[in-house]
């Protein structure tokens, strides 16, 4: 009874202890995630661009939790070890020194190894981050990658990165194998040396006459050694995790003490609010930093004023600012004042620093000298050039943290030309926009971001080139309803600062700020700029013009009844958004298991299983051999038993190390490389329709989070599960051999165990899946905060976003708490079952003590001691293995469901010189974006002669981009064909076709890497064929050469878009890249939308120099760029509405092209 009672008490107190540990770890995780998020809200844009806080709050925090979980166990283990050794001394005497010596050596080696392990892990994580970052950029830019025909090259690059990552992972896993091997060696070597020394001492003591080893001494010593060495094993194995945890804590500390962003242009009271978001410790650090740097900060502080005699709401005095901490000013010596209620337009050449000036007002840059004073608190609303949206509904994106006002909301919707868009959606403004607005067009995203700024009713609104990418009718509607005479913002007396290239809007400005390339700003008027003041009246007349083509652009309003937000709609939308990512996690374990072992291969699978069985058999033979030794009373056989025991120990250690070496060195690498290669191939060949309708984060997770499971979690769980299962089988087998009568109890205990395990696995499996799903919104919130940090801070929404983070954190903690509670319940119940098993064994042993071999009794009791722990470990690792298989299920589903483009092997490859002429013909061509979607091009018939220049125009949604996509085989053909030089493009492999064409798009793609690498993507072949002279030549032609050479590493510097290239300069960079590709057909897809008139003219000159002898197809918003083309095509609802010579159409009465041209004419010849 006492034996059973001990087990019952162990189960109860262990469950209570681990429950408290789990609660403490959850509190620690909550504190760390919260403080990291608060700090994220205060750091500069250059820090947020690295995404360090996401890695800290996910990977580093999880490592800290894992490491700290074992701190108490390690401490208590070190405290228990001396007592166990003291008890062992009474059994084996001086032989007790053996485990002390072995463990001391192994612990010292493990401590030294942990440093190397940490370094190798850091290298591996850096390689992983490099691959994931590049892959993520490819997924985000898949349309550009495909249109440039770079699939094969990008695939090779990613596979090279994956191989480099795997090589680093192998070195790290070698360190892990060594650590685990040291742990196992310390256990078995300690037992071996203990019994060897004891046998030698005993043999000498009895002069070879008495029994060297007896049952009592053997199994008492084994029991004590099992306890002591178990604790020692925990200490040794926990050292790397604990060291790694403290390393992660140091990284978090380094992040927390980073300098907060400069005060910028925000009121000082606002900055104080930002500091209030940090913890007490962090606030103290910030206060100390500010005190230490008081002199420098005070000179540049931009403060709030309650009274200003000049009447300016914004005052700038001798301001110089830039992005670097060193003195590299982009804005130089600017002094100006902005009056309340005025419309201020900021213009200037590409790359002069317009966006930098706006960011300086927002407080996001480094102020070197001078000051900005904003005479209002929490006053700014901001709409960036690249719209920022969160993965919620359209209404939630527009309202933000403001209260819902139905009348004001409706007016904002109509003013921002969103009414018709909302009507086109089944759920109206409750439609989920998707991650980064994946479900919306570029213009829709821009207008929703604009509506958010207007809805906020802030006294100051800052707009950064918000009209780029909008068609003429939409642009005129928005400008007239917001900023025109009687516009919404005019009526509200809002102060508006608008950075723009649209010269035709300048006459409406109260003041015009003209920025030079040197960074200076001058205040101008219409008269001083030389623009005709009568343009205002002329524009007003244009708005009154009517055309049948333009009638449909009139906004009739959005008449939905705007009631309060319904949480049910939001929840259902969120559920739908994550459904595709998680729907495969709950089932298909057998198929996933088969798929995983398919990636390993049958040879490695059989080798793995054989080695596992070998080491398990040897481990059990060791104990059985000791039992035989203790039962033999002949001292003359001592040498024989010692030799065989030593050989068995060495054989076990070798088998165990070889098994781990094969698993970590081969099995993991082969599986991870194959699974990555399979899904990479599917992704590269996936149809563009899949990427248009699938959240980028979902695809990225297949190559990040899921591959982390494949690389480490899954194989580690498999290894541990296999080892634990074999140990349990060995324990039960030995117990049955020792006491066959125990077989009577096994069916009953097995039935109880089966039902308990089944109930637990059902619960834990669902809780683990819920836990994974609950963490996803938290990670998304972090990512959205990083991408929109300047907008959040401009609106003064830090506190609201912090509260949202706390809610999401609390939601993510709940399933973790429930799961840990279920685990403690299960562990306690297992202890109860084992207690019954132990009671049964003791009862049988006592009753049958005269008929059972004493050695077998010792074996049975010894195995009972370890059975409870082995069973718990077995179930835990099985659960981990099953959950990790979810990654395989998702990868398998990804590979089976991504629609694939035609395989190039099905087609004949055209000659190398094709297309030599550049003749393009559409013949009754009809197409849709997806197989079952609406037709976007309707029976297009068009013949483009070689070398001709064709302009394609039309309002948003008319089919312009679809015409381009069709040429690159990005649409689903519903009828007809397209031929190039007489060859049907459907018979040409897509990658070959796209590599023979040239494209300049509205949104040029950039991939993670150096300037050289991104520029060299103009060539389909590897960039080794291009030397620096070729690259610098094209950069010189577009005016970016000096800027690149000014960087420390020149062409080999990392391409940092945020601090290096403005939006217009990105277009110039894209033009330079296109100049490296020689193709007879060039497609220009609204690529001058983000540049000023002067840069536009420069780009047009370059185009004429480099591409004028080619066949050119231009999709244009600026119709003045295509008036000298051979042909213009006006599209409407996927069909050709008008086609002909632009000069003839402009002279034709009632021409739809003429009406659109007159509406869009921007008077660039009278520009700045």
UniProtKB/TrEMBL annotation:
Entry annotated with the keyword Transmembrane helix: yes
One term under GO cellular component: plasma membrane
Keyword Cell wall biogenesis/degradation: no
Subcellular location: Cell membrane
Family matches, as PANTHER family: ABC TRANSPORTER ATNG (PTHR24223:SF399), ATP-BINDING CASSETTE SUB-FAMILY C (PTHR24223)
Source organism, top-level taxon: Eukaryota
Signal peptide start and end residues: none
Residue span(s) of domain ABC transporter: 314-542, 920-1158
Positions of the UniProt region annotated as Disordered: 560-585
Alphabetic keyword roster: ATP-binding, Cell membrane, Membrane, Nucleotide-binding, Transmembrane, Transmembrane helix, Transport
Domain ABC transmembrane type-1: 1-244, 606-882
PROSITE patterns linked to this entry: ABC_TM1F, ABC_TRANSPORTER_1, ABC_TRANSPORTER_2
Record membrane topology: Multi-pass membrane protein
Stretches with biased composition (Basic and acidic residues): 568-582
Designated name of the protein: P-loop containing nucleoside triphosphate hydrolase protein
InterPro entries (UniProt xref): AAA+_ATPase, ABC1_TM_dom, ABC1_TM_sf, ABC_transporter-like_ATP-bd, ABC_transporter-like_CS, ABC_transporter_C-like, ABCC_6TM_D2, P-loop_NTPase
MF annotations from Gene Ontology: ABC-type transporter activity; ATP binding; ATP hydrolysis activity
Record-annotated membrane-spanning stretches: 88-113, 606-626, 638-661, 714-735, 741-761, 825-845, 857-881
């Amino acid at each position: 009874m006492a034996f059973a009672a001990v087990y019952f008490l162990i189960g109860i107190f262990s469950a209570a202890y681990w429950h408290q540990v789990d609660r403490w770890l959850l509190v620690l995780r909550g504190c760390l995630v919260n403080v990291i998020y608060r700090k994220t809200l205060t750091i500069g844009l250059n820090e947020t661009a690295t995404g360090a806080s996401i890695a800290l709050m996910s990977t580093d925090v999880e490592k800290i939790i894992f490491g700290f979980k074992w701190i108490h166990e390690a401490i208590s283990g070190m405290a228990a070890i001396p007592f166990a050794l003291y008890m062992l001394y009474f059994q084996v005497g001086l032989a007790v020194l053996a485990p002390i010596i072995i463990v001391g050596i192994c612990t010292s080696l493990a401590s030294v190894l942990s440093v190397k392990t940490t370094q190798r892990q850091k290298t591996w994580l850096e390689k992983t981050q490099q691959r994931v970052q590049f892959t993520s950029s490819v997924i985000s830019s898949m349309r550009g990658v495909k249109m440039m025909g770079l699939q094969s090259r990008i695939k090779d690059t990613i596979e090279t990165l994956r191989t480099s990552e795997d090589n680093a992972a192998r070195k790290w896993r070698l360190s892990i194998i060594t650590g685990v091997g040291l742990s196992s060696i310390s256990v078995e070597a300690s037992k071996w040396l203990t019994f060897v020394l004891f046998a030698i001492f005993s043999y000498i003591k009895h002069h070879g006459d008495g029994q060297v080893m007896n049952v009592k001494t053997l199994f008492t010593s084994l029991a004590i050694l099992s306890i002591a060495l178990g604790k020692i094993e925990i200490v040794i194995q926990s050292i790397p995790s604990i060291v790694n945890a403290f390393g992660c804590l140091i990284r978090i500390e380094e992040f927390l003490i980073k300098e907060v962003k400069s005060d910028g242009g925000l009121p000082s009271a606002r900055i104080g609010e930002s500091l209030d978001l940090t913890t007490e410790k962090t606030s103290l650090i910030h206060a100390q930093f500010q005190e230490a740097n008081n002199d420098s900060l005070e000179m540049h502080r931009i403060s709030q004023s309650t009274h200003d005699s000049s009447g300016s709401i914004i005052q700038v005095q001798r301001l110089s600012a830039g992005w670097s901490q060193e003195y590299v000013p982009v804005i130089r010596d600017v002094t100006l004042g902005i009056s309340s209620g005025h419309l201020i337009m900021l213009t200037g050449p590409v790359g002069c620093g317009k966006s930098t000036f706006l960011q300086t007002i927002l407080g996001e840059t480094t102020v070197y000298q001078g000051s900005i004073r904003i005479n209002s608190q929490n006053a700014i609303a901001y709409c960036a050039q690249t719209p920022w949206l969160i993965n919620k509904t359209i209404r939630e994106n527009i309202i933000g943290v403001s209260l819902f006002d139905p009348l004001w909301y409706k007016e904002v919707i109509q003013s921002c030309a969103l009414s018709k868009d909302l009507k086109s959606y089944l759920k109206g403004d409750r439609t989920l926009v998707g991650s980064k607005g994946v479900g919306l067009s570029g213009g829709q995203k821009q207008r929703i971001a604009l509506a958010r700024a207007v809805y906020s009713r802030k006294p100051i609104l800052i707009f950064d080139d918000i009209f780029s990418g909008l068609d003429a009718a939409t642009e005129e509607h928005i400008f007239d309803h917001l900023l025109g005479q009687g516009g919404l913002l005019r009526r509200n007396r809002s102060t508006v600062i608008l950075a723009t290239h649209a010269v035709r809007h300048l006459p409406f400005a109260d003041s015009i700020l003209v920025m030079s390339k040197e960074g200076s700003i001058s205040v101008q008027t219409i008269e001083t700029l030389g623009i005709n003041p009568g343009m205002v009246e002329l524009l007003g007349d244009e708005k009154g013009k009517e055309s049948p083509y333009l009638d449909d652009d009139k906004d009739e309003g959005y008449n939905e009844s705007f009631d309060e937000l319904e949480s049910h709609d939001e929840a259902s939308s969120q559920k739908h958004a994550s459904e595709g990512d998680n729907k495969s996690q709950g089932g298909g374990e057998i198929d996933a298991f088969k798929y995983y072992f398919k990636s390993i291969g049958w040879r490695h699978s059989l080798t793995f299983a054989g080695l596992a069985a070998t080491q398990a058999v040897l481990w059990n033979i060791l104990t059985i051999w000791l039992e035989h030794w203790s039962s033999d009373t002949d001292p003359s056989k001592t040498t024989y038993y010692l030799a065989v025991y030593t050989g068995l120990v060495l054989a076990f250690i070798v088998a165990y190390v070889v098994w781990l070496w094969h698993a970590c060195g081969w099995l993991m690498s082969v599986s991870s490389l194959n699974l990555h290669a399979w899904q990479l191939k599917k992704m590269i060949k996936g149809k563009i329709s899949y990427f248009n309708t699938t959240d980028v984060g979902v695809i990225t997770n297949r190559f990040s989070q899921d591959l982390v499971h494949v690389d480490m979690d899954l194989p580690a769980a498999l290894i541990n599960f296999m080892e634990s299962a074999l140990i349990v089988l060995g324990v039960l087998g030995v117990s049955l051999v020792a006491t066959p009568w125990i077989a009577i109890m096994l069916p009953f205990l097995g039935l109880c165990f089966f039902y308990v395990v089944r109930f637990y696995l059902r619960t834990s499996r669902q809780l683990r899946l819920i836990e994974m799903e609950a963490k996803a919104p938290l990670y998304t919130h972090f990512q959205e905060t990083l991408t929109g940090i300047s907008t959040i801070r401009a609106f003064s929404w830090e506190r609201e976003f912090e509260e949202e983070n706390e809610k999401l954190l609390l939601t993510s903690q709940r399933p973790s708490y429930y799961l840990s509670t279920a685990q403690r319940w299960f562990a306690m119940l297992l202890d109860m079952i084992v207690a019954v098993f132990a009671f049964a064994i003791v009862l049988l042993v006592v009753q049958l003590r005269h008929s059972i071999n004493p050695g077998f009794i010792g074996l049975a009791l010894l195995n009972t001691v370890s059975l409870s722990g082995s069973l718990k470990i077995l179930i835990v690792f099985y659960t981990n293995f099953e959950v990790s298989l979810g990654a395989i299920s998702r990868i398998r589903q990804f590979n089976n469901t991504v629609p694939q483009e035609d395989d190039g092997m099905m087609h004949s490859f055209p000659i190398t010189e094709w297309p030599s002429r550049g003749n393009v013909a559409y013949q009754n061509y009809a197409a849709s974006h997806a197989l079952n979607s609406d037709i976007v091009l309707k029976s297009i018939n068009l013949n483009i002669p070689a070398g001709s220049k064709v302009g394609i125009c039309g309002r948003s949604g008319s089919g312009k981009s679809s015409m381009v996509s069709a040429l690159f085989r990005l649409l689903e053909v519903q009828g007809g064909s397209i031929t190039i030089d007489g060859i049907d493009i459907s018979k040409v492999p897509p990658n070959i076709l796209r590599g023979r064409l040239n494209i300049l798009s509205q949104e040029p793609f950039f991939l993670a890497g150096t300037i050289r690498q991104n520029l060299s993507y103009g060539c389909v072949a590897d960039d080794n064929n291009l030397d620096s002279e070729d690259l610098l030549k094209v950069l010189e032609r577009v005016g970016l050469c000096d800027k690149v050479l000014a960087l420390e590493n020149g062409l080999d510097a990392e391409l940092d878009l945020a601090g290096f290239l403005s939006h217009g300069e990105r277009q110039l960079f894209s033009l330079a890249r296109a100049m490296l590709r020689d193709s007879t057909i060039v497609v220009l897809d609204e690529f001058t939308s983000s540049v000023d008139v002067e840069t536009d003219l420069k780009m047009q000159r370059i185009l004429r120099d480099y591409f004028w002898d080619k066949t050119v197809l231009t999709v244009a918003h600026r119709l003045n760029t295509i008036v000298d083309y051979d042909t213009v095509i006006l599209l409407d609802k996927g069909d050709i509405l008008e086609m002909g010579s632009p000069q003839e159409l402009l002279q034709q009465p009632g021409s739809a092209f003429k009406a659109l041209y007159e509406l869009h004419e921007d008077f660039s010849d009278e520009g700045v």
